[in-house]
Amino acid sequence: MRLFVALDIPQNAAAxxxxxxxxxxxxxVADRWQPLYNLHLTLHFLxxxxxxxxxxxxxxxxxxxxxxxxxxxxxGGFGAFPHAEHPRVLWLGLRGQTNPLKQxxxxxxxxxxxxxxxxxxxxxxxxxxxxxxxxHVQEGGLPLQEWNERYLAxxxxxxxxxxxxxxxxELKPEGAVHTVIHTSTFDKEHCKKQAVPE
Length: 198
Description:
Layout: E1 2-8, H1 11-24, E2 30-33, E3 40-48, H2 54-65, E4 71-81, E5 89-96, H3 98-112, E6 128-135, H4 144-151, E7 158-161, E8 163-172, E9 175-185
Antiparallel strand pairs: 1-3, 1-8, 2-6, 4-5, 4-7, 5-6, 8-9
Helix pairs in contact: 2-3
């Protein structure tokens, strides 16, 4: 099964992000614009996972979520990978209480390391929402700061993150279909196991 772990992005924030992308498309050419339906904030993309590992992944999520308090996030500014001068990916970042988000990512990775046959991206985590791949640049690169001022609200949508989900992703001719197969709730009292293995 093709799996990833992610947070929900609520409808008001998703609509805001889609509006920013739509206005940006009038000024910028890109090889591919990211479809924004079923929008989510990915923590770990796990790829093809044997079904036998799914109960362990769900347990890992429950253990880690038990020691993470709910936290507040909001849509941040523009960014690019690897950088604005020669970008391959154009994205919007996240602001607010990003330290618990990064801790959640780190602790989940430590749990996933315990399982043979489970792989994930070990690069430094930069929480982001992809807008476009292969944006075309003029001399001097992408004007990210100018776009922040032109396209983004002074007070963008913010929300409380209370759950993390395990999604199954099925690739179909009409596009990927994402289905939640497990949900863990932050700071749930019934589970206070040790999150970091010795």
